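Researcher: Next entry in the queue.
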Amino acid sequence: MVNAFWLDRDLDQTARWLVDSHVLSSVFENAMVLTTAVQLNGYAEGDPEVREALYFTHADHPLTRWAAAHYDNWAYLRAYAEAAHEEWRYRWDHPPEKTHGSWATVESLDEAAVAALDWPGEPGDPPQVTGEWQADDYVEAYRLYYANEKRDLFEWSKDRTAPPWLEAYRRGS
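Model: Structure for this entry, 173 residues:
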């Protein structure tokens, strides 16, 4: 399963609110989604060596389909993954020159070639991959999902703490 946890529209704030395990998984999983999305749109089609260096997985997942639909969607997910990567550096005291391997794969993409792809759809809000926790707004849905389905993962390192909205979104015990 892959996911991006859209806890705020400010992606740096989102990254600060991610639990420790989601900081790392957001870098890795979204690198897979980003490289799969561009390949679905023909990126490096004639270059098997480049394609071999990229991830290709979860092609039918709602997040991948959304990222592959329009360049703006893809760029928004890339910004999310980049914010998570910066948070990974911060929480575990990695120096600025250290790059997570999954993020290096995203950075290896030719951005001009990515932007020039024939994107088949329209820009839109990210899909709500939140199970029963749906809302009119994707941030609201993800806050509900996080507060209720991810409780067992609540751990924030360094000076990061639980989001201030967490209690307001909890339902039940």
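Model: The CA atoms of residues 148 and 172 lie 8 Å apart.
Researcher: Noted, moving on.
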